[in-house]
Amino acid sequence: MPHITVPPGRDPLIHVWTALAPPLTSAAGAYSQAVYEYSSLSLREFEAARITMARINDCALCLDWRTARDVPSRGAAPDEVPESFYAAVGSPDPTGLTERERLAAEFAERYATDHRNMDADLWARLHAAYTDDELVDLALCVGSWLALGRFNQVFDIDGACRVPAHATAGATATAGATATAGAATAAGAAPAPGPRE
Questions:
Q1: Is residue 90 part of a domain?
Q2: What is the pLDDT of residues 129-162, one digit of tens each?
Q3: Is 108 a domain residue?
Q4: For residue 107, which of 61, 123, 137, 146 sits 20 to 30 Å off, Cα-Cα?
Q5: DSSP annotation string for 75-121
Q6: DSSP conformational letter for 166
Q7: pLDDT at site 153
Q8: CATH of the domain at 52
Q9: Helix axes 132-154 and 22-38, enclosed angle (nearest 10)
Q10: Does an H or E element contain 51, and which?
């Protein structure tokens, strides 16, 4: 049950992201849009970090989200990242993942669950694989998924896991899964995707 008052017949998540605190929710949508539209990480590196955060945030629909499929603007074929990739991320046997993909997942996990113990060994491995620019990119992506995914969980509005942008922004956004009736498009299919894991 949502931890905010939702008018009868309104989707809780849609209500929060379109009717409440518009200056901040629209800014959060713009941040999420930037993550999906402008990250310089490869799609697989991006997805390794994103699926790790979806698991940590425990969002069932976000676990089903596939950026290649759900964000056409990423320019990937819908099945470019196979399901075996998602199974390998975070598994004891990460066969088929590159060092950068494994590090993206490890970074996301440590950022979310053990940020005060990101030790010199981790940073040495990260710096051996990524530029400083790429590390900032990765951290901003992970930070958005952590903050916005948990926001939806805290208010218990993540059931549909979609977030449309404010009408003043002129676009529909989503929060990690396909938008349903009442939202304009599938996640990422709109010109301005919004908060999602």
A1: yes
A2: 999 999 999 999 999 999 998 898 899 887 654 4
A3: yes
A4: 61
A5: ---TTSS-HHHHHHTTSS--TT--HHHHHHHHHHHHHHH-GGG--HH
A6: P
A7: 86
A8: 1.20.1290.10
A9: 140
A10: helix 43-57
